[in-house]
C-alpha cells in the first residue's frame, strides 16, 4: 500500500514510477525496502521463533482439547494460534524479500484474525466460571456471555475486514478513500477494545462478588461451589486467564496507535514496538491459555464425565449454596451444560 514515488536513477523520459506490491517484486535501487509498507526487513530469527511458539501452542492445545473434550475453547485457541503461526512464517519470508506481496497479505490477514479467535476462547471461559461457582452472583445468566461476546468479537473482525477492503480498493492514487478505509479499520479495533473492556468489567464484578460471598460462608460448610473456589487449580486458572486478558488488551490498544497514522506510518515501521506490543503480547496469552488449559486446570469446561465427574452429580441434586439462593436442580443443570 506504499504510495511513494521513486524517480532517482531513472531516465528523464521515464514516466513517474510508483513503487508498490503490484509494480515491485524484489528490492532494487528503485524498489527500495523503505518504500514497502513495513519499511524494513523483518527479523528472521524472531519471526521463526514466534512461528514455532504459536505452532507448538496450537498442537498442544489441540491435543489437550481432544483428550479432555474442551471443544469450543480448544478449537478457538488452536485456530487462532494456527493463523498467528502462518502470519509470522510469512513475516520470516518477508525478511528474505520485503516485496513478497503474497507473504505481506498473508501476515496482515493472519495477524489481525488470530487474536480475534483467541479472544473467543477467552470469552467462553466466563460462562463456565459463572456456572460452576454461582450464577446468582453474576449480573447475567451464564449463557449470556458467549451469546453476547462471541458475536461482538466477530463483528469487530467484520468491520476491520470491510475497512481493509476499502483501503485495498483505493489503490495507489485515491488517498482519500485509503484514509476512509483506515478509519473503518480503527473503528473495528476500538470496538474490540470496548468489547474486551466490557468483558473485563463483568468478569471483575462476578469475581469480586464471589470472593466476598465465599468469605462469608462458614468454615464448617463445604459445598461443591466453595470447594471449586478454594481449589488451587481454579485459582491458577483464573490468574492465567487474567494474564492472557491483560496482554490481549495491551495488544489491541497498541493496534489503535499503530493504525492511527495510516499505512506506513512511523509506528507501523518500528519493528521493536511491534514485536513487544503485538507479537509477544499475543504469544504470552497463547502460552498461558495453553499451559493452563481448562481441561486440566478447570475441568468444569470439559464435556467428559471422566474428567468432570462432579458436573452431572451437581445437576442431579442441589448443593447447600443453591438451596440458599433459591436455585432449582434442573435449572442449574441446564446452565452448566450450555
UniProtKB/TrEMBL annotation:
<dbReference type="InterPro" id="IPR007568">
    <property type="entry name" value="RTA1"/>
</dbReference>
<feature type="transmembrane region" description="Helical">
    <location>
        <begin position="277"/>
        <end position="298"/>
    </location>
</feature>
<protein>
    <recommendedName>
        <fullName>RTA1-domain-containing protein</fullName>
    </recommendedName>
</protein>
<feature type="transmembrane region" description="Helical">
    <location>
        <begin position="74"/>
        <end position="94"/>
    </location>
</feature>
<keyword id="KW-0812">Transmembrane</keyword>
<feature type="compositionally biased region" description="Polar residues">
    <location>
        <begin position="321"/>
        <end position="332"/>
    </location>
</feature>
<keyword id="KW-1133">Transmembrane helix</keyword>
<feature type="transmembrane region" description="Helical">
    <location>
        <begin position="48"/>
        <end position="67"/>
    </location>
</feature>
<feature type="region of interest" description="Disordered">
    <location>
        <begin position="311"/>
        <end position="338"/>
    </location>
</feature>
<feature type="transmembrane region" description="Helical">
    <location>
        <begin position="183"/>
        <end position="208"/>
    </location>
</feature>
<feature type="transmembrane region" description="Helical">
    <location>
        <begin position="106"/>
        <end position="126"/>
    </location>
</feature>
<dbReference type="GO" id="GO:0005886">
    <property type="term" value="C:plasma membrane"/>
</dbReference>
<keyword id="KW-0472">Membrane</keyword>
<dbReference type="GO" id="GO:0000324">
    <property type="term" value="C:fungal-type vacuole"/>
</dbReference>
<dbReference type="Pfam" id="PF04479">
    <property type="entry name" value="RTA1"/>
</dbReference>
<feature type="transmembrane region" description="Helical">
    <location>
        <begin position="147"/>
        <end position="171"/>
    </location>
</feature>
<feature type="transmembrane region" description="Helical">
    <location>
        <begin position="236"/>
        <end position="257"/>
    </location>
</feature>
Amino acid at each position: 500500500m506504499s504510495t511513494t514515488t521513486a524517480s532517482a536513477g531513472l531516465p528523464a523520459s521515464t514516466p513517474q514510477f510508483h513503487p508498490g506490491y503490484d509494480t515491485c517484486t524484489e528490492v532494487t535501487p528503485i524498489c527500495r525496502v523503505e518504500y514497502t509498507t513495513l519499511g524494513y526487513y523483518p527479523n528472521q530469527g524472531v519471526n521463526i521463533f514466534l512461528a514455532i511458539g504459536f505452532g507448538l501452542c496450537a498442537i498442544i492445545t489441540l491435543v489437550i482439547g481432544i483428550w479432555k473434550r474442551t471443544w469450543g475453547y480448544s478449537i478457538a485457541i488452536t485456530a487462532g494460534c494456527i493463523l498467528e503461526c502462518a502470519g509470522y512464517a510469512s513475516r520470516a519470508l518477508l525478511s528474505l524479500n520485503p516485496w513478497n506481496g503474497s507473504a505481506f497479505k498473508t501476515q496482515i490477514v493472519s495477524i489481525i484474525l488470530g487474536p480475534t479467535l483467541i479472544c473467543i476462547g477467552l470469552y467462553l471461559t466466563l460462562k463456565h466460571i459463572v456456572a460452576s461457582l454461582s450464577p446468582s452472583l453474576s449480573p447475567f445468566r451464564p449463557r449470556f456471555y458467549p451469546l453476547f461476546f462471541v458475536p461482538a468479537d466477530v463483528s469487530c473482525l467484520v468491520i476491520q475486514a470491510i475497512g481493509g477492503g476499502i483501503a485495498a480498493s483505493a489503490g495507489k492514487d485515491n488517498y482519500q478513500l485509503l484514509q476512509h478505509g483506515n478509519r473503518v479499520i480503527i473503528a473495528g479495533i476500538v470496538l474490540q477494545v470496548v468489547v474486551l473492556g466490557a468483558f473485563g468489567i463483568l468478569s471483575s464484578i462476578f469475581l469480586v462478588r464471589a470472593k466476598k460471598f465465599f468469605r462469608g460462608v462458614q468454615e464448617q460448610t463445604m459445598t461443591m461451589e466453595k470447594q471449586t473456589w478454594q481449589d488451587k487449580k481454579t485459582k491458577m486458572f483464573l490468574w492465567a486467564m487474567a494474564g492472557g486478558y491483560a496482554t490481549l488488551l495491551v495488544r489491541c490498544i497498541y493496534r489503535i496507535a499503530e493504525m492511527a497514522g495510516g499505512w506506513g506510518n512511523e509506528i507501523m515501521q518500528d519493528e521493536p514496538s511491534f514485536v513487544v506490543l503485538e507479537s509477544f503480547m499475543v504469544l504470552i496469552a497463547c502460552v498461558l491459555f495453553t499451559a493452563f488449559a481448562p481441561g486440566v486446570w478447570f475441568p468444569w469446561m470439559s464435556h467428559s464425565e471422566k474428567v468432570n465427574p462432579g458436573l452431572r452429580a451437581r445437576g442431579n441434586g442441589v448443593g447447600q449454596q443453591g438451596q440458599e439462593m433459591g436455585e432449582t436442580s434442573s435449572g442449574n443443570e441446564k446452565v452448566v451444560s450450555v
